[in-house]
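User: For a benchmark we're assembling, each entry needs the component sequences followed by a predicted structure for the full assembly. Here are entry 17's components. Please fill in the structure.
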Amino acid sequence: MSVLRKVLVVEDSKLVHMMYDLMLSRFEIVHAHDGVEAAARLQEHQNLDAVLLDMNMPRMDGMAFLRLIKADPIFAKIPVVVVTTDGTEETCRRAVETGAAAFLTKPFKAEAILEVLNRLIPNHS
Amino acid sequence: MSEEAIIQRLRERLEEARSLTSSLDESYAELQRRLAEYEADVRELSDRLIDTEQQANRLIGLYAGLYQLHATLDPTQVYTAVADVVTNLLGAERYALLLYQGNDRSSAVRIALCSHQNDLARLAVRDRYLGGDPHIDGALRDGRLRLFSERSANPVAVIPLTVDEQPVGVLVVFALLPHRATLGPADEPLIDLLAVHAASAVHSAHMHQRRGSRA
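Assistant: Structure for entry 17:
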């Protein structure tokens, strides 16, 4: 029996959460609506395979959460995919320097998200 | 057996072999033709699968947008859903939602949502749109879509919102996200969705609010 790969979605848009639910039916999705909630979800789900992270969010933004996850030795190895409307080179460079494994812009295509997840999560396709 | 008979037998065998070879060549050619057909079928099915997956993913976006627009009867939450769709599906960076305060095109126009206040600052007093942008005014007047393919255009799109030919307002896209390609035919289903369903969701939420305030 195959075990579903688990992906944490950190995103403040209800619409995008719903799109991930529908597009990533072959994954188990854990939802968080900002960085603070995402930090709590990390403690509850220590076997995450990847994180899909928005940048502009209330309370704790994506960059702050990315720094937090990469500074923690337990979670640092989880690949983080930044998915944002802010497609500037500066944001991309900062995200990659902070430890993001991939950088995608919105509006995104499901094919792009799936391609990145399949590449980053071993033995998943 | 005489030498002649042996030669004759060998000739017959040779002829049989030639005939068999010819038949095998035909079979081989037929198999190759069928293989080529199957390979073409596989390529076509593969292309169709990719198209279907892409179509399904586009429908997922439209479905999620539609669901969010009609998931609430609170006007403020409907405006938020419109902003969500405009940003995350259409790729708008700066936008505004202008709504008629009455049931016809002569009524005042209210700014229900504006992502960047500067875009309407010179055309509004508080939340009331005074007019002055020819594209917005044109769409408010005739209820026809304005789409501009030039990236530098401002606005990029003015989308009239109507329910049963009753004008609700317009959705104005002042600018797309810098990495987003200009609006094209592929965006039309989403623009149609916005024109019909955003209008319906806003209209329903306003009706619900009015009924609540009367009760």
